[in-house]
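Dear colleagues,

As part of the handover before I leave the project, I'm documenting each prediction I ran so the next person doesn't have to rerun anything. This entry is a single chain, and its sequence is reproduced below.
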Amino acid sequence: MKKTLCVFLGLIIILSSLTVALAREMDIQSENVEFTLNSETGDRELLQGITAKIEMSHLENLIWNIDFSPFSESKAELTFKKRGGQADAPTFHGIWGSYLDIRDFARDNKKLGEYVFGVEKSLEKTGDSAEISIRLKDYYDYYPVKINLDLPGLSIYYYSPISHEEKGGYSFYGISEARGKEFLRKLSDYIRIPVREDDVRKETVEKMESGYSHATEYINTFDYNFLNAQFSDRLFFTVGNLTGPNENCPSVLVDTSEMGGGDGYGIYSVPFAENDIKSEEMKTVFRIDESSSVIYLDGSEEKNELYVCLLENGNFILKVIDASSFSEISSVTLFSYSYEKDHIGFVKNEDFLLFYKNDLELKTVTKSSDGTYSEAFHFVIPQENEYGWDYYDYESNAVFCGDRLIFFIRDRENFSDQLKKSAKFRITAFGADGRVYSGEWENSLGENTVNTYEAFVRINKAELIFDESM
């Protein structure tokens, strides 16, 4: 017994010593976070006046708040945070469409179900595969609307059944089933899109050991792609009106003339409150020519503005809309644009809007003193560049300084089979005069990085600050 007690006391002493040592080391590190510049290219002057406010953490309990100035003294502070609870405000999606495959359609439509499940049943005997071609117009007049909805305090989710005999259904959270179903009916009537004559889904059905395999080839097929801008009491939404492109078929417009309760294509609004969405007040707030396509929809409740990005006559156009009068504030043509070939990203920042085409062409749009918007910066990155810009990283933080566009980019490292964020980062700056700077740093906290998530010190977030007086 005495021997066991001695061993136990010894362990306590060792653990206490380790705890004291760890606490002392963390305290030292909190005041002495060192940054090392690993590599750089270009003109350092482009970082004049820039500070990065970086938050790093270990297990989300130890939090380092760091003010990093690239070429001067940096400050770091160690804080402690209790684990548990969501630190950031929850993100809501608004309306988003459910992916529907042929078997979902077949469960929903009796005639189609008899055909598809009849083919499957015939394969039970032969064990072979079968080729089927489904012209959706033979089974539906309008594209079926199966959606999910996430808003503060309420959700509606669509689920697909396992059994052939059952139909899909909805689950309702934070809203009564009656009001939820009323919204679904109203939405289905409000966004009626006739099924295209040439919408064909070709299926290769094969009997597997458990169930069936369906491989689909899509030809001029359309699926609902909802776009949303959420305010505290209103949801603005629309849908993409193009079929999905593939190798054999370019994208084509669907018929949107019956949308909006007959108003046609546009931006629609529906108010919501706690535990309810007021579908009876759904309305069209901004009409869009049916030959145009909405690519992005976003908004700023603080500025009372909607940002509508359109494909229009082969151009990518930003329209800024007043969210009360729904009048057009500005229209800015930004890029030539092909839906099949080009990708344009849109990032809303507090003081500017950022657009990037095919990752290598950057533009910013800013608000003038008269309240209108215009293009303020343009930089084309050559495909062969010495500063390592391969693509726009969606986790980048950017600041626009009038004649400079600067990015803070968190590094990623691959440990085992999981993608981890490391303590390295890159700051890349583009100047209106064509100058570029790019530098990569690591810091002393990164030395604690090991190949397990539990012991990983990582950058949670970073914000670039520009001080003109520096």
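The two ends are 68 Å apart (CA to CA). The first strand starts at residue 35 and ends at 42.

All the best with the project,
I.
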